Amino acid sequence: MQLVNKILLVSLLLVVLPLVLYYYFFPTFRDLFFEQKEITPFSRYAERNILSQEFHLVAPDHLKYNQPSIVSGRTDVVTVTPWLAPVVWEGTFDPVLFDSIYKQKNITIAATVFAVGKYIMFLKEFLETAEKHFFVGFRVHVFVFTDRPNELPQVKMAAGRQLTAYPVPSSKRWQEISARRMEFIQELIEKELHKYADYIFCLDVDSRFHSRWGTESLGGLVAVVHPGYYRADRSEFPYERRPESRAYVAPGEGDFYYCGGAFGGLLQEVHQLAKTCHSNFKADATDGIEAAWQEESHLNRYMWINKPSKVLSPEYLWQDFKNINPEVKIIRFSGVIKNYAAIRPNV
Ligand SMILES: CC(=O)N[C@H]1[C@@H](OP(=O)(O)OP(=O)(O)OC[C@H]2O[C@@H](n3ccc(=O)[nH]c3=O)[C@H](O)[C@@H]2O)O[C@H](CO)[C@H](O)[C@@H]1O
Ligand SMILES: [Mn+2]
């Protein structure tokens, strides 16, 4: 009897043990039976816990700031879109509160700026004024895409802020420089930024900061309303109007006309935007069509379908040649007056 028991035990072990070892060391089988991963719509955010980062707004206890109101506030401008995204105007947010919330998240903000050909001359002022106004007190990494890395200006940057040159080819057409921005932004995110950056803003270099541009501008997908068209009827917006183009916006459609010179948001969102605009731009080129305002047209098409979760008022990209309207209480960032013929490689 005892011998029968022993034989049974040994033969059981001989069957069970290889099975256990097999399931343990053979990952596909193991995954299949033991660890089947749940694919959720949010899994692309899981790695950096980005989603909670964006929506979990924790304020420090005992922070003192002005009492908020839901019955008084700015009445001269619209501060929310029809899809209930905030429109950021001076007087609609508390900068101290915002900074305290985002300080606790330990975020890194990347900024991209293109300085190809003669446009390198704008870089010094752009960087110097960014030091004074752009996410002061936060970790900021500025990437300059340029064909002249040796001409990078010397600008003293505060602790936690850095500058990196990213070499790109020169071009004989300004349209191509402007349009290829989406391609290089996509590449930078895939190669580098995904490792550590949380948010990104993509900005025109021929501009300067004049006042605070800070954490109030952060959001999933962030667009700036163009200063030239924010009072205009949508029929006047310079969208791409040829249906053959992938940037086409039909008459009677489109929310706002957004700037190509400033946009941003969470890294994942901007990656999706850059990838889509780049591939649509390329497909258009194969068909022999270039949208009216290059990547700005593609961006506007993208934002019509993918509504921005935060809209920045034209305070965030004004133009120096424009008279200031009364609803604009502050100018944060503005394009300088320039002589196109003197600085662009073609006219
Ligand atoms: C306020 C705003 O929304 N501006 C848009 C408008 O700008 P602008 O008329 O201001 O165009 P722009 O000449 O500033 O070109 C856009 C950007 O491309 C880069 N660049 C351009 C030419 C060059 O030789 N070297 C160089 O580096 C540079 O970063 C510049 O800031 O129309 C362009 C047309 O496509 C873009 O959509 C811009 O974003
Ligand atoms: Mn510009």
TrEMBL record:
One of its GO terms (cellular component) is vesicle. Its main location: membrane. The chain crosses the membrane at residues 7-26. It is found in: Membrane. Pfam families: Glyco_transf_6. The active site is at E296 (nucleophile). Belongs to the glycosyltransferase 6 family. This is Globoside alpha-1,3-N-acetylgalactosaminyltransferase 1, like 4.
